[in-house]
Specification:
With 231 residues, this protein is an all-alpha fold. The chain is built from four helices and no strands.
Length: 231
Amino acid sequence: AASGAKRSAEVPASRQPLSSQEAQAERRKRDAAQEQDRRDLAERKRSVEEWRLRREVEQKEQEERQRQLRRIAEGQEAREKQQRRQSQQQALEAFRTQQREEEEQLAARMATAKAEQRLSEEDKTRIAERNEAMVRQKELQRRRREEQQQRSTQSFQPPTRAGPSAYAHVHSKLQGHTEAYVDRARDFLDSEEQQRAGAASKYGVVPGNFAHQGIVRTLRASPSWRPGFGS
């Protein structure tokens, strides 16, 4: 009993029963601490969530940059491969062309050498004689053509024209008009002489000239449908 009393005497004052006010204050303090803990926890959660989202965004951006770099590198590599392939193809074509030309030149030289070897002195003489004969034949043909042209020029005769007897049945209109004109002129002169002869009459009036209108006389042939006109 003595030891129990001693332990109860050693209990600190905080363990002593609290009053109602102290209990309420302690409760408010504890609630405030819990509320602060909840806010701190929520803030930490929010910070962690933001960090996680930011990290995901950065990771996605980094992955996108890596993909772009990879695509650029692949495109560059593909272009380089294409260029190398084209260069190799061009070099191969140039080599084949050069080789083909060299083979053709070699074949031509070999054919020429063989032909020259086969061509004997007799063949050369025969070819030269044939060429000379062809030249002489062309020269002879040219001279013959020139002589033929000269003969045709010297012996040229123009075609004969038809004589007057070919048109004897055609009546000359010019001659008819001329004769009619001469006849009319003769009649006109005769009438003038008659007028001058009758000028000494009483009134000096020309017979047939009514009211001094004049006498119509034509110097051309009178048409057949107007007989006696101008007479």
